[in-house]
Design a protein that fits this description.
The chain has 151 residues and is mostly helical. It has one domain. 77% of the residues lie in helices and 0% in strands.
Length: 151
Amino acid sequence: MFQSMVRGAVAGAAGTAVLDVMSYGDMAWRGRAASEAPIQLMEKITQDLRHPVPGSGSRRNNRLSALGALGGIAVGCGTGVTVSLLYRAGIRMPWSLGGLVTGALAMAAADLPMALLGVSDPGSWSGTDWASDAVPHLAYGLVTYGIVRAP
């Protein structure tokens, strides 16, 4: 089981790197700004836990930005571990379907907390917003699931 967890964490880290490359590539291509949602999510979580992030101004914002990025890495690695354990338990799909499911799982793990905590409303997203989120998550899923199921 430990080997499956390590494989999943490595797969999730590789998938996360691909997701980040695609997201930053999209930002560079279209000239769009980074999403503020991860910063807002971390601010909401730390306040709700009664452990607000210290500092003020740009220093505090930098800390929240770093926490948002670390949260994304944790979601990516955690999703990889989950998928790897499910694979070990016998839940096996063809690569394309498994990649799609893995990407959808990671996207839900990233977006549902933001929606539930009122940080973002996916119902108000444009088609371009959805594509900017879904396409990198699909790439994440294909890479992650591909590594999980590799011999």
